């Protein structure tokens, strides 16, 4: 791709971008949210037209596949039906299921994957869903596969299975573009890297032994980043939340944990460990559990999210796009949703009170927004996440539960969010961080509980935390 330019109205998104992709390579495309990566890849895959420049390739557009972060699978259909959806093999007037089954088996075997093509999609793990998206691309004989944040919702073990598959495809001459905010993964799996900033390429190079995460992050944000200064020890107060023998049949059991005022507590493990379900129960999203939830020394019967909010609990769910933002509402409207009653004057929402509320949190969280009445989708992922955080903070919670708080957020925005958490903890707000990322836990948490198959298997003090110890317990092992 040479000197690619693209504007939306007066907004010049791509300012003359060059990208060279070699056959049989894994090429990282990095940059902060809103820097033009997706626009560039939409142009490469033929979804968008470019204004200037040229694309020189021996590969036709139908041989380029773009696997988006939101997977395009139908949960109630099986693997085979998903692979051929819209281009079924037919025998006369009827669908030839036998031929589709054989072809599905062949493509999965090419990927070294042993799974029955008749397996229903909703029964698959997140990593297998990613694999099926890749299989769809290979079924169309894709020579270039663009993967947008493919490991965001995966455990370490699942990530390694995706990486193994990527290496197999690379050996077969397929080229992969790997878009990710996880710089350790880029160093592990990629051959080359292109880094964009503000619609321009600021770095191109090979991934060699002397390339490190810090260097890549610095190119992305254009300034020195300090990881070391994020965590600050604090004096914590009394216990504000206790979970005593919390049980839910076949989901979680014997959950006992505590959180103090101003403390940041991590809960981690592998996907499916039950941690999200525990805190959905705490926040009143789900029912059917037994045991005690004690808030500031008093047992609480939390039967709804409204009750949880009234008790000073805030909740930021995982998967921002699906569970966090309302796409059809503006930035300002998204921010005030749980605080509407506070902003009423004579039964109506006060525009001046709303404006004051919005401006306070835009300033407090450094949210980059042109106009508050723009749609929430006009913001970068990191700024959308800050809006979701602002929405929760607007309820003045004492305890905030964050489920994967920086999922799909670039490194610069991550550090900003971590600093926001740390500053609020100093003010006495308590945080529970549910995260798959060990680095996130290390950078923010005072203590960490590790879960395995619905149980808390170990509690680590900050001094005891290490990636090896956490992974050992998360996979069923024991600390000796």
Account of the protein in words:
The protein has two domains: 2-221, Rossmann fold; 239-474, P-loop containing nucleotide triphosphate hydrolases (Rossmann fold). The termini are far apart. The mean pLDDT is 88. The protein is α/β, with parallel strands linked by helices and 480 residues long. The chain has helices spanning 37-44, 79-83, 97-110, 126-139, 156-171, 183-189, 213-221, 275-282, 305-310, 320-324, 331-336, 351-364, 381-393, 411-426, 438-444, 467-474, and strands at 2-8, 11-17, 26-30, 52-54, 64-67, 90-91, 94-95, 144-148, 175-179, 192-197, 200-206, 239-248, 252-260, 264-268, 290-295, 298-299, 313-316, 344-345, 348-349, 399-403, 430-434, 447-452, 455-461. Strands 5-8-9-3-10-11 form a six-stranded mixed beta sheet, with helices on both faces. It has 16 helices and 23 strands. Helices cover 32% and strands 24% of the residues. This is ABC transporter. It comes from Candidatus Epulonipiscium fishelsonii.
Record the SSE blueprint:
Elements (H helix, E strand, L loop, with lengths): L1 E7 L2 E7 L8 E5 L6 H8 L7 E3 L9 E4 L11 H5 L6 E2 L2 E2 L1 H14 L15 H14 L4 E5 L7 H16 L3 E5 L3 H7 L2 E6 L2 E7 L6 H9 L17 E10 L3 E9 L3 E5 L6 H8 L7 E6 L2 E2 L5 H6 L2 E4 L3 H5 L6 H6 L7 E2 L2 E2 L1 H14 L16 H13 L5 E5 L7 H16 L3 E5 L3 H7 L2 E6 L2 E7 L5 H8 L6
Helix pairs in contact: 3-4, 4-5
Protein name: ABC transporter
């Amino acid at each position: 791709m040479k000197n690619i330019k693209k504007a939306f109205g007066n907004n010049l998104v791509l300012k003359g971008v060059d990208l060279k992709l070699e056959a049989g390579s894994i090429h990282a495309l990095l940059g902060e949210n809103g820097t033009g990566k997706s626009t560039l890849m939409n142009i490469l895959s033929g979804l968008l037209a470019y204004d200037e420049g040229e694309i020189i390739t021996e590969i036709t557009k139908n041989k380029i596949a773009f696997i988006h972060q939101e997977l395009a699978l139908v949960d109630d259909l099986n693997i085979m039906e998903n692979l051929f959806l819209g281009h079924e093999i037919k025998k006369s007037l009827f669908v030839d299921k036998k031929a589709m089954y054989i072809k599905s088996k062949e493509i999965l075997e090419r990927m070294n994957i042993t799974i029955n093509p008749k397996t229903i999609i909703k029964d698959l793990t997140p990593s297998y869903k990613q694999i099926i998206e890749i299989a769809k691309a290979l079924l169309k004989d894709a020579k270039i596969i663009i993967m947008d944040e493919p490991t965001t919702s995966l455990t370490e073990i699942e990530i390694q299975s995706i990486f193994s598959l990527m290496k197999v495809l690379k050996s077969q001459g397929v080229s992969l573009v790997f878009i990710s905010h996880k710089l350790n993964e880029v160093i592990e799996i990629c051959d080359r890297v292109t880094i964009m900033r503000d619609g321009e390429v600021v770095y191109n190079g090979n991934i060699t032994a002397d390339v490190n995460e810090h260097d890549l992050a610095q190119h992305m944000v254009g300034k020195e980043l300090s990881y070391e200064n994020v965590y600050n020890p604090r004096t914590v107060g009394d216990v504000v939340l206790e979970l005593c023998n919390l049980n839910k049949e076949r989901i979680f059991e014997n959950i006992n944990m505590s959180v103090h005022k101003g403390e940041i507590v991590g809960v981690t493990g592998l996907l499916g460990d039950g941690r999200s379900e525990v805190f959905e129960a705490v926040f009143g999203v789900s029912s059917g559990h037994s045991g005690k939830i004690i808030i500031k020394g008093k047992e609480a019967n939390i039967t709804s999210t409204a009750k949880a909010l009234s008790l000073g609990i805030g909740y930021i769910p995982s998967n921002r796009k699906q569970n966090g933002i309302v796409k059809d509402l503006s930035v300002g409207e998204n921010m005030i949703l749980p605080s509407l009653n506070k902003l009423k004057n004579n039964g109506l929402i006060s525009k001046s009170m709303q404006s004051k509320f919005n401006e306070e949190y835009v300033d407090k969280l450094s949210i980059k927004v042109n106009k508050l009445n723009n749609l929430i989708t006009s913001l970068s992922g990191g700024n959308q996440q800050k809006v979701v955080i602002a929405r929760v903070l607007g309820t003045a919670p004492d305890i905030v539960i964050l489920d994967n708080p920086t999922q799909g957020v670039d490194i610069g925005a991550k550090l900003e969010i971590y600093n926001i958490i740390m500053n609020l903890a100093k003010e006495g707000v308590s945080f529970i961080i549910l995260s798959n990322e060990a680095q996130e836990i290390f950078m923010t948490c005072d203590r960490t509980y590790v879960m395995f198959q619905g149980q808390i298997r170990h509690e680590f003090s900050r001094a005891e935390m290490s990636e090896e110890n956490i992974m050992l317990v998360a996979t069923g092992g024991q600390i000796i």
